[in-house]
Amino acid sequence: MPVEITWWGHATCTIEDSNVRVLTDPLFARRLAHLRRRQGALPPPGAWRADVALVSHLHSDHLHMPSLARLSPGTRLLVPRGAPRAVPGLRRLAHLDVSEVAPGDETRVGDLSIRVVPALHDGRRLPIGPHRSPALGYVVEGEARTYFAGDTGLFDEMAKEVGPVDVALLPVGGWGPYLGEGHLDAGRAAQALARLGPLSAVPVHYGTYWPIGMDAVRPHEFHAPGDEFVRLAAERAPQVAVHRLTHGESVRLEVAR
User: Fold this and answer.
1) Which residues contact residue 183 at a Cβ distance below 8 angstroms, ignoring those fewer than 6 apart?
2) Which of 9, 143, 175, 201 has its CA 20 to 30 Å from the CA of residue 247?
């Protein structure tokens, strides 16, 4: 059975593997603070359906409370350890089965194994305050091994911590004209691809949200990262098949073990 990847925009994807639906960093908002969805229609209600949802870190474009509230009763939700203390609203999501996880943890959902791996990123909800949670990535293993990186920068032990994977969902941009530390741009994502050596890759976390009023400021930074990643990946990891999806588009990948 193939694995199917659907990109809904930003870091939100559905991974369908072994008859289990996995949803990553659900964000179903037209507007978030100073950000506006500038490309791709809002995901339809069918996109909210999942057996398990994964939250990579506490930033509000990845842990978005109104989007999590839309998930069906009984949906499992994996969040970084300490998240309910840092984001008290999580405690009110009584209809969800919430578990706190940290790097090294492993969870079973149906025939899937979900392994938690580290990420190099600021995992705090706010830049000040006493509460800290780790930023995470996840490896979803069933018929395929799919790595969802969340938000991360390059780090020396990336290939060792993530392990062999068949598919990599890598962030290649952001929601503003500049990326700080702890992020992958198209070039660093291509380097990560060369280190990880998967069979296939899908670029995410670009070309969806943009700050209000910044349309005229370096607009190519909004549109370009996907194509730039395809170009650089062909140079640095030519053995990897890169699938640049449009919003709402899916790709079915056959994985031979």
Assistant:
1) 121, 151, 152, 153, 171, 174
2) 143
